[in-house]
Amino acid sequence: MPDDPEVLGWRDGRIVALDQTALPQQVRQLTIGTVDELVDAIQRLVVRGAPVLGAAGALGVALAVRQAERHGWDRDTLDAQIDRIRRARPTAVNLGAGVSAVEPLIDQGPDAVQAAALRLVHDIAEANHALGRRGAAFLRETCRTDRPLRVHTHCNTGSLACLGWGTALGVIRCLHESAHLGHVVVDETRPLLQGARLTCWELAQQGIEHYLICDGAGPFVIAQGLTDAVVVGADRIAANGDVANKIGTYALALAAAAAGIPFLVAAPESTIDPATPSGAAIPVEQRPAEEVTAILGMPVAPSRTRALNHAFDITPAELITAVVTEDRIIRWGR
Amino acid sequence: MPDDPEVLGWRDGRIVALDQTALPQQVRQLTIGTVDELVDAIQRLVVRGAPVLGAAGALGVALAVRQAERHGWDRDTLDAQIDRIRRARPTAVNLGAGVSAVEPLIDQGPDAVQAAALRLVHDIAEANHALGRRGAAFLRETCRTDRPLRVHTHCNTGSLACLGWGTALGVIRCLHESAHLGHVVVDETRPLLQGARLTCWELAQQGIEHYLICDGAGPFVIAQGLTDAVVVGADRIAANGDVANKIGTYALALAAAAAGIPFLVAAPESTIDPATPSGAAIPVEQRPAEEVTAILGMPVAPSRTRALNHAFDITPAELITAVVTEDRIIRWGR
Question: Which of A66, B114, B119, B170 could be B165's S-S partner, Cβ–Cβ 3.0 to 4.6 Å?
Fold first, then answer.
């Protein structure tokens, strides 16, 4: 599965996508033949994860151009349809970036657009792979042990989110391929359980030994010495090195610092935002209370219970051992 | 409900217990007539919470003595059955303490055992009330603010866990009754969701404003300044002040220390175990993986996913501002 291009791919002039809302109960592939279908898939999180959204934006332009050809759309209609893709999720910067990367090629015809989109998909996967190798080397050097490393991670940062390889999970996979990985500890990642549903599924596909834990157990598992290093992804990295990532990350960083083990953030260069001076300037998305008061649609609290649902938290740079990107290792903090 | 003695009571020679696994969807009372049924109820968490377990231990001896009388057990058989109650769960010291408190009266006959057990149940409820008042006064003094306090708590430590008043939730209730409480932040407390299911239910019954959050969000909510103090219960307190409590507690203690807000442990004197030198000597119960891989019976991870399920964690004394009991304030740590 991890090398399967079908997490998001292109076949016979259509996008093929793995339906991430159906995992792990069902492995279901969707064929997306129109802009309408693509916008719907993005909004329902069938297609999710920042790098995957970048690829979806690029492939979406190729899709729109093919559709324009079939239906004889004029340029204004085509532009309006492409704009719908760009705006399908207003906060995901990668989606618009993917669209913009291939849009200038429209005048060169459908084949040029398609080739550029496929090249971008390939480049995204390649960047993740370079990041994974660098992160794995960093951890082996930093942990200074001969035995296989036990690595703790949060949320889903694997091929499902990142197209073919992964960021934090890509680091883990590189350790596995060079036989330097012991096991992986996976936080379930409430409220939407991406760790339990997606990361466990990916690790099982790759034959990597792993143990699922509840989010509240993470800091104690670290304190007990059951893990050698924590590796997570990032949604935005401020200019001072503060990191916004899935809610629950900060607790792991506190525990890793207390236990004296490395806390590594793995993210592409595009995640670093020089325009954001520090974590305090990062807007933290509040999602619906129902994601907390119900789990997979089943109520777990009395009706009318109010909830706070921060989608991300901020980990200050001083708790982070290093940030690894496809180009470099950056040490702002610890 | 909070003052309803039927959270755990004694009727016609049997234990009556509110089935805490059925809340908040159902308010269901169980009658427990044998040691087998009691051990099962304790292990399935029908009966749960450190002080309630103390009462269950005492009432369990009374139950065993009645059963011995009916079935003509010899003393060795009776002792073996009582030992099964004592060992039904390993971490909470209260269960064994409840058993030991009434066991010496066995030679005086069933009525004496029963009277001692009921006295202990009464004393546990009384002690909780004194503890609540002392803890509330401590927080008001420590937080040094005139505005109502916003208090963060974990798991369920209210009347459901504690017979009539509560430990940490008893402190919160005392703040509420004296109009010093703003709102309560409630961790959902995976895997069994005692915070979402039970604490939210109790707070709603008492008309106390509260917000449910996912466990992973707790440390960030504290870092954001959304809470003035953390108050939790305890399942065992070692001689050096290290505290075993529901998994997820340690993360809050790390965050409270980082934010410079008080972290208060509210527990009866009986929770302090002088025989346990430090947290490292406290056995931490491992519960079934299925509590993690499924939520309320619904699978959330791929089948065959392995899980670690520590029921408790250990918070070192240096992260704890104070322990409040029915008799005193103890400062081992911070």
Answer: B170
Instruction: Choose, out of B91, B210, B214, the residue to mutate when testing the contact with A (most A CBs < 10 Å).
Output: B214
Measured between beta carbons, which residues in chain A are less than 8 angstroms from residue B290? none
Please answer whether residues A93 and A234 qualify as being in contact, where contact means their C-beta atoms are separated by less than 8 angstroms.
no
Give the other-Cβ count within 10 Å of A22's Cβ. 14
Using the Cβ of A139 and the Cβ atoms of chain B, whether some distance falls under 8 Å is answered with: no
**Selected residues 288-327 of chain A with any CB under 8 Å from a CB in chain B:** 289, 292-293, 295-296, 298-302, 304-310, 313-314
Q: Which long-range contacts (CB under 8 A, 24 or more apart) does B297-300 make?
A: B298/A295, B298/A296, B298/A298, B299/A25, B300/A188, B300/A193, B300/A196, B300/A197, B300/A295, B300/A296
pLDDT one-digit tens code per residue, A70-109: 999 999 999 999 999 999 876 556 788 899 999 999 999 9
Spatial CA neighbour of B322 closest among B330, B312, B314: B330
How does DSSP classify residue A315?
Answer: E
Residue A181 host element (H or E)? strand A181-187
- The two structure tokens encoding residue B124: 């546990």
Q: How far apart are CA B65 and CA B88, in angstroms?
A: 18
More confident residue, A96 or B281: B281
Partner-chain contact B299 A25, CB within 8 Å: yes
pLDDT in tens, B15-56: 999 998 888 888 889 999 999 999 999 999 999 888 899 999
Q: Residue A152: how many CA atoms within 13 Å on its side-chain side? A: 30
Instruction: List the beta strands (DSSP E) in chain B.
Output: 8-11, 14-18, 29-32, 149-153, 181-187, 210-213, 229-232, 236-238, 243-246, 263-266, 272-273, 294-295, 298-299, 306-307, 312-315, 322-324, 329-330
Q: Is B239 on the interface with A (CB under 8 A)?
A: no
Q: Which SS3 state, helix, strand or coil, does residue A91 take?
A: coil
Q: CB–CB of B211/B145 below 8 Å?
A: no
Does A179 reach chain B within 8 Å, measured CB to CB?
no
Q: Token match 């001072």: residue?
A: A240
Across the range A277-305, mean pLDDT stands at 92
Amino acid sitting at position B137: A
Q: Angle formed by the axes of helices A75-86 and A50-71, to 10°?
A: 160
The pLDDT tens digits for B196-226 are: 999 999 999 999 999 999 999 999 999 999 9
Query: Residues with Cβ < 8 Å from B213, sequence gap 6 or more?
Result: A292, A307, A308, A309, B185, B186, B187, B188, B221
Chain B residue nearest residue A220, CA to CA: B313
Both tokens assigned to A165: 């390889």
Provide DSSP, B195-244: IIIIIHHHHHHTT--EEEE-GGGHHHHHHTT--SEEEE--SEEETTS-EE
Handedness of CA B48, B53, B55, B60 (dihedral sign): positive
Tell me the shortest Cα–Cα distance from A112 to chain B, in angstroms.
41
Whether residue A3 is predicted with pLDDT greater than 50 in this model: the reply is no
| pTM reported for the whole predicted model | 0.89
- B202/chain A closest Cα distance in angstroms: 10
